[in-house]
Write a structure and sequence with these properties.
Elements (H helix, E strand, L loop, with lengths): L2 E19 L2 E15 L4 E6 L10 H15 L7 H11 L4 H19 L15 E2 L3 E2 L4 H13 L4 E5 L4 H15 L4 E5 L7 H10 L5 E5 L7 H10 L4 E3 L6 H9 L5 E4 L1 H4 L2 H14 L3 E3 L6 H13 L3 E4 L12 E2 L2 E2 L5 E3 L9 E2 L1
Parallel strand pairs: 5-6, 6-7, 7-8, 8-9, 9-10, 10-11, 11-12
Antiparallel strand pairs: 1-2, 2-3, 4-15, 13-16, 14-15
Bound molecules: magnesium ion.
Magnesium ion binds next to loops.
Length: 356
């Protein structure tokens, strides 16, 4: 099987509610779709979901990077995926989301050619399905409390809460949410670097004692591993690295510096499944559990992440809930139970998603 051509197109995803986090508000998600064609008539699908704040890319720059990468793809056998991804990582190192799109399209082709769902290529079906959980965007305390109550009334027992402005206001947000949902609902806080340094973070965490908080994600600025390590050493609540941890080298650094208790792996930060598996191996050896995070990808990128999460026991939680909140998903086949929020992988070969 040989790659004969590629096609790219902008993928502008309309959200049901604008996503507000510590560093910005996103009314739509500006992503890119990749189609990889072969001489055997198979079509591999990829999605690049860039974020200038996280991956350093934009919709326009990933579209350029993907067009540029066609020279590394055309004429190649998709089964030579590690060599192709290594070449892309060397030639376009600043485009992890573009490389992630290439990586998932190649895996999609390999799975289709072998007639197996992707998880069978990544270690097999480690579990039947995995529970997802909603994200409460950062907003006024009353708005966040109302949204949280709606989910709790649906029976949802875990919420991800976006915080990260003034710690006093964050505390008001948290206490309003707990007042609305009770202390039974597990809370996973994402600060998105908003508390900046260790001193601010530790004061904020101290004030949040007694709440049912499972972990706190990225309290301090991404580049400051020493500050992250100080928070991790002093906090009773587990600390997760997200923006501080993009690739296998970052996992090694975090492990060596004891800078976090957990790692948030995102295909778009690291450059796809091939790289994510290296991160998982290092994290597992270091005793660091991982979660599979999301950039709000459509069904294409979410399917890629889900196959990995199903196959790897060191992934203890999964946030690939984007398709529930997108009005114009370009694909179907990614299955989330809308009542239980459990996602199960398609048994269709490859990613198991098709364009609408
Ligand atoms: Mg995060």
């Amino acid at each position: 099987m040989r790659i004969t051509s590629i096609e790219t197109q902008p993928l502008t995803l309309e959200l049901q509610t604008p996503l507000k986090v510590a560093y910005g508000t996103y009314p739509v998600l500006e992503y890119a779709l990749l189609k990889v064609f072969t001489d055997e008539g198979l079509l591999g699908l990829g999605e690049a979901s860039p974020d200038p704040e996280v991956t350093g890319e934009t919709q326009a720059s990933v579209l350029d990077a993907l067009e540029n990468a066609s020279q590394f793809l055309i004429g190649k056998n998709p089964f030579d995926i590690s060599a192709i991804i290594n070449l892309c990582s060397r030639e376009i190192p600043s485009y992890p989301a573009a490389i992630a799109a290439i990586d998932m399209a190649l895996y999609d082709l390999i799975g289709q050619k072998l007639q197996v769902p992707l998880y069978q290529l990544l270690g097999g079906k480690g579990r039947l399905d995995i529970g997802l959980y909603p994200v409460i965007p950062m907003d006024e305390p009353s708005v966040m409390a109302k949204m949280s109550r709606n989910f709790a009334e649906m029976g949802i027992d875990t919420l991800k809460i976006k915080l990260g402005s003034d710690p006093k206001l964050d505390l008001r947000r948290l206490s309003s949410i707990v007042e609305a949902v009770g202390n039974r609902v597990k809370l996973r806080l994402d600060i998105n670097q908003g508390w900046k340094d260790a001193e601010t973070s530790l004061q904020a965490i101290q004030a949040m004692q007694g709440y049912n908080i499972e972990w706190i994600e990225q309290p301090v600025s991404a580049g400051n591993i020493d500050e992250l390590a100080k928070v991790t050493a002093a906090s009773d609540i587990p600390i997760m690295a997200d923006e501080s941890c993009h690739n296998p080298i970052d996992v090694l650094k975090i492990a060596c510096h004891k800078a976090a208790n957990m790692i948030n792996i995102k295909l778009m930060k690291c450059g796809g499944i091939d790289q994510a598996m290296k991160m998982l191996a290092i994290a597992e050896a270091a005793g660091l559990p991982c979660i599979l995070g999301s950039m709000g990808e459509s069904s294409i990128g979410s399917a890629a992440g889900l196959h990995l999460a199903i196959a790897k026991p060191n992934i203890i939680a999964c946030e690939l809930i984007g398709p529930l909140f997108i009005n114009n998903d370009p694909a179907y086949g990614y299955q989330i139970d809308r009542i239980t929020l459990r996602a199960s992988p398609s048994k269709t070969p490859g990613l198991g998603v098709k364009l609408i």
